[in-house]
Design a protein that fits this description.
Elements (H helix, E strand, L loop, with lengths): L7 H18 L53 H9 L25 E2 L51 E8 L2 E8 L9 E5 L4 H4 L10 E6 L9 H16 L46 E2 L12 H4 L12 H8 L16 H4 L36
Antiparallel strand pairs: 1-6, 2-3, 4-5
């Protein structure tokens, strides 16, 4: 009888073929283990997070009824391990290890800093935490609800044990902004992101058989008034996003227009911070920081250049630098990390505070204190020099 032998190379190839087949199956709709019809008789789009149907099989994507690896019956030994089993670019559509508007997680490049979900970091250890005393460990679910949310990107509707969202009434007279707020009940959309269809998934997005399923890319917090979104709604989304961050970093919500922070120096002097609870352009948390994290590849200088831009030929707007030159130039030298910043070093300051810009009520810009500016105007995108 002839014996079958398989070499290491052939075995490796077989494994790779199986892996690619598995990855490809993530783009099949519905997946093989999901019913084809939803509650309304339409093609089932099968969203793992939320949109659960009466015939759901989604629970089994994350939980094991009898063989869970932790007390929550998760199929992995920890929350990060479970989330990353899809969101590391192998299965889910959204790869958090790739550069995006949210930043990047799990990078080990120079000047890297992350919202660390792979440690025993306590939520109450957040910089600027004053009233936030929760003893919970910081994990993916500290910001996202794996079972679904009314907010875009399943951002939590409660953070650090409290409901942060409000309905705002914003009044701008001249250059004075008055904000009144009332609590917004859980279950209502508090945060809207500027989501656009991802061209990498055009075939899925253009399909007429998937009941409206869209794979999107985020351009950041929604920051424009349109026919579908009024100026008041846009203000609400923007303000709630800062409230979302401030649920943990609560003492950073103050600003110079509305008085000092609650914390004081050892000598009792008042402390102030940048505006974070204002509708004014360029004054949200994400104007300076990424939500997930940053590294040398994402950091920019005040001209908006990345290390990739700097390596381009001069006739393409670059400096024709080597990678080592570009990284040495961009490295955040002030500390070991970079505080999730969008701009390197103190370029975060210079990106706004210079005379070439038109940003409302920003010292150092051409419109300060207000000349030539439009009250409540959107000056985003005008803060980068050539």
């Amino acid at each position: 009888m002839r014996k079958f032998k398989i070499g290491f190379s052939a075995l490796l190839m077989l494994i790779l073929v199986c892996m690619f087949a598995t990855f490809a199956s993530a783009e099949e709709f519905p997946p093989p283990n999901v019913g084809e019809i939803d509650n309304f008789g339409n093609q089932n789009t099968h969203k793992t997070h939320g949109n659960f149907q009466n015939n759901t099989n989604s629970c089994a994507n994350c939980h094991s009824t009898h063989n869970g690896e932790d007390e929550m019956l998760l199929m992995k030994s920890g929350e990060k391990e479970l989330c990353m089993s899809c969101h590391d670019g192998t299965m889910g559509f959204y790869d958090v290890t790739a550069d995006s508007e949210a930043g990047v997680i799990d990078s080990h490049e120079m000047s890297a800093s992350m919202h660390d979900v792979d440690s025993e970091l306590a939520v109450k250890a957040a910089p600027g935490a004053l009233k936030n005393t929760t003893t919970a460990t910081f994990e993916c679910s500290s910001c996202h609800n794996p079972h679904g949310s009314a907010n875009d990107r399943i951002l939590n509707e409660t953070v650090a044990g409290k409901t942060y969202a409000n309905t705002y009434k914003v009044t701008i007279v001249g250059y004075t902004e008055t904000i009144e707020k009332t609590p917004l009940a859980v279950g209502n959309k508090a945060i809207k992101l500027d989501l656009v269809e991802d061209p990498d998934y055009a075939e899925i997005n253009n399909s007429t058989s998937l009941s409206g399923l869209k794979i999107t890319k985020s351009k950041g917090i929604y920051n424009a008034a349109t026919a579908e979104v009024t100026k008041e709604q846009m203000y609400n989304y923007k303000l709630n996003y800062s409230e979302f961050c401030a649920a943990c970093h609560d003492d950073y919500l103050k600003n110079r227009e509305h008085g000092p922070r609650e914390a004081k120096t050892a000598d009792g002097h008042d402390l102030y911070t940048h505006t974070t609870n204002s509708t004014k352009a360029g004054r949200s948390c994400t104007a300076c920081h990424y939500a997930h994290g940053t590294d040398i590849n994402l950091l920019r200088d005040t001209a908006g250049k990345t290390i990739a831009d700097l390596q381009k030929p001069v006739d393409q707007g670059g400096k024709a630098w080597t990678e080592d030159q570009a990284k040495a130039y961009m490295k955040d030298v002030s500390k070991d990390g970079s505080d999730l910043k969008r701009f390197t070093n103190m370029a975060s300051c210079w990106a706004c505070h210079q005379s070439t810009h038109a940003i409302v009520n920003t010292p150092g810009t051409s419109t300060y204190p207000a000349s030539g500016a439009v009250p409540g105007g959107d000056y985003s995108g005008k803060a980068l020099i050539k």
